[in-house]
Amino acid sequence: NAGVTQTPKFRILKIGQSMTLQCAQDMNHNYMYWYRQDPGMGLKLIYYSVGAGITDKGEVPNGYNVSRSTTEDFPLRLELAAPSQTSVYFCASSRGTEYNSPLHFGNGTRLTVT
Amino acid sequence: AQTVTQSQPEMSVQEAETVTLSCTYDTSESDYYLFWYKQPPSRQMILVIRQEAYKQQNATENRFSVNFQKAAKSFSLKISDSQLGDAAMYFCAYRISGGGADGLTFGKGTHLIIQP
After folding, report:
1. Which among A23, A16, A12, A25 is positioned nearest to A87, based on CA atoms?
2. Can you tell me whether residue A83 is helix, strand or coil?
3. Cβ(B75)–Cβ(B58) below 8 Å
């Protein structure tokens, strides 16, 4: 059981480049999330999705885009990368929003923009 | 908006002793969920323990227990018989009940050091 899989694990981008962070889950979860974690900070929500075809902004969406064409996949797109987007990115999923539907996290992608 | 505050950036404890990590939160909701996540150097986010706000009884998972004080909006984590493997960042998190489609609100974390 793979759970939530994120690729790549590490990436270095130059300012202005674009890239897509991949996230896939094999638990048939409806809810998926993208968080970023800056040094010394907790996780902040970038975007979330409650099902295929439905996405919504979180706390820090600027500079990012997402899509959810299937239940399994929830890629995060960075357009015109900026140094402020240097962070560790986590994808997570959950079956629902109830107490017994905790978030399952991927292992994160460390992104550096120089 | 809900906020979660962890006032201890770093804590240190001797192996086999007990340590308590603090967490307070601010919400106008009456029903919600609270969580503690552990993040070891591997970066993986691991659920340690969770609590439903309407339950008075404090949650316990082996050596981990919480002290949930709803009126004070406090949710501390106690780790008994600390082990070297407990060394990690610990995050307190909040989720509204019955509508938390936008996931969890996290505190900034407490770095726990275990002294051998």
Report:
1. A12
2. helix
3. no
* Token pair for A8: 């790549």
- CB distance from B104 to chain A under 8 Å? yes
Q: How far is Cα B16 from Cα B106, in angstroms, rounded to an integer?
A: 28
d(CA A64, CA A80): 9
Nearest-CB residue to A48 (from B4, B99, B103): B103
Q: How confident is the model at residue B99 (pLDDT cuts 50, 70, 90)?
A: low
**How close does chain A come to B82, measured CA to CA in Å?**
23
Smallest Cα distance from B16 to chain A, Å: 27
Residue whose token pair is 């939160």:
B25
Whether the CB-CB separation of B72 and B53 falls below 8 Å is answered with no
What does the pLDDT look like over A1-54, one tens digit per residue? 679 999 999 999 999 999 999 999 999 999 999 999 998 888 999 999 999 999
Residue ranges with strand state E in B23-70? 24-26, 32-39, 46-52, 60-61, 64-69
How many whole angstroms separate alpha carbon A28 and alpha carbon A42?
27
| Residue A85: Cβ within 10 Å count | 19
Window 42-101 of B: residues touching A by CB (8 A cutoff) are 42-45, 47, 50, 52, 91, 93, 95, 97-101
A102 band by pLDDT with thresholds 50, 70 and 90:
confident
Mean pLDDT of B22-47: 93
